[in-house]
């Protein structure tokens, strides 16, 4: 039902529902297993392939057991990591950008008609600016900040972070860009370290990233340099199992009815 609701929301916003691609990526020697919803659209972002739609939505089966996004070491030790999971996503190929991506995300997760998640449990992160490749600086993401404020997120709940948290790339090369994440406060019971009063930013397991909105703007080449994409685009990834834990009121993916 949760998967279906996500896809229906984006179909209703003009997105084409596309099937999950194979876990073994087609024609991509840079990747052993599919690690994100955007993989099957890589060439569309790069402008090398055209589709008859400019907006898509998927529930993509992913494996993260090696490579750039390796979760293997965390599995079994946290409530939120699996080597295999489903990533819910919406994509814009040179169609809408930050303003609509943020408005859609906030509507879907907070509107009582859709997921209806309590706003007082949500935090948002944005890119604070950094050297994104040797000699290339990218400033803080003011545009994302303004859009989050416009949809009603208080500034005190918007945190700025660096490359590690708020710049996403699928691998050493390929499409990439600054990102903005939505996190949910699972409460003190979710802290692996028994924290009772830690604040957002603590990595004890209490604050869980549920959705990453990537503002795809660059293609990183093999020298590490960032070259602009033909058009700014959107790639998002929401963890189906994580959002299911939130909606079912449990602190662990292992306690959801999926498992
Ligand atoms: N492509 C977005 C993500 O994996 O978080």
Helix- and strand-based class?
Answer: alpha+beta
Strand tally: 11
Distance between the termini: 15 Å
Mean pLDDT: 96
Bin the helical content: 10-25%
Low-confidence stretches: none
How many strands, which pairing sense, and closed or not: the largest β-sheet?
9 strands, mixed
> What Rg do the Cα atoms give?
17 Å
Shape designation: globular
Number of helices: 6
Multimer state = single chain
* Pattern of helices and strands: HEHEEHEEEHEHEEEEH
User: In what range is the share of β-strand residues?
Assistant: 25-35%
Ligand catalogue: glycine
Description:
It is a single chain. The protein contains six helices and eleven strands. It has 259 residues and is an alpha+beta fold. A hairpin with a 2-residue loop joins strand 5 (130-133) and strand 6 (136-138). Helix 3 packs parallel to helix 4 (142-150). It starts with a helix and ends in a 12-residue tail after the last helix. Residues 36, 38, 168, 212, 214, 235, 237 line the site of glycine (GLY). Glycine (GLY) binds next to strand 10 and strand 11.
